[in-house]
Amino acid sequence: KEDSVIEEKEREESGLEQQDETCSLEGPSRGDQTNTNKAGAGRGEEAMGECAASPVDLDDMSETSPVGILSKDRVTVLGEVAPVWVPDAEAQVCMKCGIKFTFTKRRHHCRACGKVFCALCSSLKFKLTHLDGKEGRVCISCHSALIKSSSANLIPLDGLPPILTSTGVKGDYTVEEQPSEMLLIQELESGRPKPLVFVLNANLLAMVKLVNDVNRKCWCVTTKGMHAVGQVELVVLLQCLPEEKSFPKDIFRHFIQLYRDTFTKVVKHLSLSLFGSSFFGSQDHAGFLYVRSTLQSLQGLPLPNQPYLFGLLVHRAEVAWAKAFPLRLMLRLGAEYRYPCPLYSVRFRKPLFGDIGHTIMRLLVDFRNYRYSLPVVSGLTVDLEAHRTCIKIPNTGYNELMKAVNKSNEHVLAIGACFNDTADSHLICVQADDGQYQTQAISIHNQPRKTGSCFIIFSSALKASAGYLAKSSVVEGLMVQITVETMAELRRSLREMKDHTVTCGRLDQSESQELVCVQWVEEKCTVNKIISPIDGKSMESISSNKMFQKSEYKENGKIIRWTETGDNPKGAVTDSAEHNRLTERIARAFCLALCPHLKLLKEDGMAKLGLRVTFDSQEGFVAGSNGQPLPAQYLNALNSVLIPVIHSRGRKRDGEPIVMELIFYILEN
C-alpha cells in the first residue's frame, strides 16, 4: 500500500513537471538539447585529442586558468530528469522478466527510466538528481548503468590517477598515465617545492605535497575545480604514519564523491561529510568535519584560492556530536591538540566522546532521529567577561533569530552561538571516562580576558520570591535564569530588534550584580573572499549565495554553469521572490547567449566568467573574465539577450540602486 501511494504521488508530480516543461517558453527545447548533446558526443574523440595536447598553466593555479584538463564523452541524463512513466494499462507484464501482473504481483515504476517492472526486477535503489538526491526505486538495468556512470573518474582500483608533468617549456604540461608511486613519494620526500597535480576527472584536480604543520609531518591534499560546480575548495592535512610509503588515495575518492553530490550536498563551515565504507583502513573513521581556518598559522601550506575549508577526520563515536552540535566537537579537538582547533587530522586516535550520557543538550537536541536541534544564528557570539556578559546578534540574523524565538518553548529560549574569534578563550565540554561532562576553558593566553560560549539558555523558572533579579551560571554553556516577566520583556525586545539588559544577582546585594547584555550589531562581512573575474574587484562586502542549477546548458562538448550570485546587502528587495526570479532569468539569458561560444571562450582561457548588472537611473551590465571585459563579439551576443531582460524589471521610484554580480564556469561535458 505504501509503495502504491508513493508511486501515485510521484506519477502526479511527474505529470505536472512534464506539463510545465511543455508549456515553458524559456530555455532550450528538448529537441535542441538532444541535437546539442549529439553534437557534443560526435566530437568526443576530437575534443579528447585537443584537450590532451593543449597546455595547462599550473604556474598560476588561479581560478582564471582553464578548469578542464581532459574531456569525456557525453554523459547520459539517466537519473537527472524525471522520466515519462509508462501507463499501467500499457504494461500487462514485467518489462524485464515477462511475468504477468496480478492482484498480488504488483506493478512498480523505475524512477530512472519510467518503465514498469515486478518487485523482484525493481528492488534496487539509487540516489537520483531529479529526486533532489533522495533514493528512488530503480530497475536492474538502470542501476547497472547508473553505477557505471557514477564511477566516471580517473582513479584506478590499483595505482594512482594520472598526473600533470611539465615538458620543460613554461606553461606546457602533459598527462602521465600510471605514474610510479614509489618514485613520486621519493620526489616528495626529497623536498619537491611544488605539489604533485593529479587528474581526478575532466574538471577536478588534486594537489599533493608533504608539509610540516605544527611540527608534524603531514600529507597536504587540496582540490582545484570545486568552485566550478558551486562548492568551496577543500584541504585535508593528514598526519603521516611512521614509515608511510603510499598515498592516502581514499581522499581522492572522497573528493570525487563530493564533486558528484554537488546538487544535493553543499559543503559549508561545520558541515559533516560521511564515508560510505571503511576509510584509511578502519571502520572507526566516519567522515570529515569541514571548518574554516581562524587563528591557526597557514604558513608553508599550498592552499587553493578562497573560499576553502579544512577537513577534520571524525571518529565514528563522535558522529552524534558532529551532526547535532559540531562546534562542541571542533572546540574539543582544540583542547586535545591546538586552540581553537587543529587543521590536521590524526588516524587511529581515541574518540573524544562516547555515549551521549547525561548532558543538558539532551533537552535541546534529538540525538535519535535528528528531527530537531539547537537553532544557531549566523554571526551570533557570546562574550563572558568579569561582571558582564555580552550577546552580540548581527542585524542580518534577525530572521533566523525570529524562527528560533517562534519555535521555542514559552519558558525556555535556547540559541546556539558561533565561534568567537575575538575571544581569548572558549568554554568547552569534556567527557570523562565515567561518561560525566565537565566544563572547562581553553585559551590562547594564560590570563584570558574574554571567554566565548557555544550557546546560551534563558529559562523563566526563577520565582519572584527567590530574592534574585536573575541568576547566571555556566552549565556546559551559559544559562541565565529569569522571571516570567523578564522573559516576556526579553522576547519583546528581540522582536522589536532592540537592545536588552538583564541584571543578575540578589536584590539586596547591588555591589555584586552582573549584567547580561543583548546587543544588535552591524555584521562585518569578511567571509566572502572572492575576487571578481570582471575587473579584479574584491567582493568581500557583497552578500553572496551559492547557486545549484539543475538544468545545464551544453554545446560543443562544454557546459556552462551559474555557480554564485552576490547582491549589495542594503534593502530588503534582495530577498524578494520577484528579485530572485529576475536573477534566474538574467542567468538563463547569459548562458543561452554564450552557449555557441563556449568552446572558443574556454580555449582562450576564459573558463570563469562574471556578469555585473546595475539597476539605477542608468541600467546596464558589464561582463568579463581574467580581470578584463569580454571581447566585443561576446558582448554583442549578450546585448541582444540581456538588455530586454534587464529592462523588464521596470523603474522603481522609491527603491535603492541594486548591483548584482553573477559567477559562471565553463566545464568539460
UniProtKB/TrEMBL annotation:
One record GO biological process: endosomal transport
Principal localisation: cytoplasm
Region (Disordered): 1-47
Locations listed in the record: Cytoplasm; Early endosome membrane
Alphabetically ordered keywords of this record: Cytoplasm, Endosome, Membrane, Metal-binding, Phosphoprotein, Zinc, Zinc-finger
Residue ranges of domain FYVE-type in the record: 88-147
Cytoplasm listed as a keyword: yes
Start-end of Basic and acidic residues biased regions: 1-14
GO cellular component, one term: cytosol
Entry's Gene Ontology molecular function annotations: 1-phosphatidylinositol binding; zinc ion binding
UniProt xrefs under Pfam families: FYVE, SARA_C
Protein known as: Zinc finger FYVE domain-containing protein 9-like
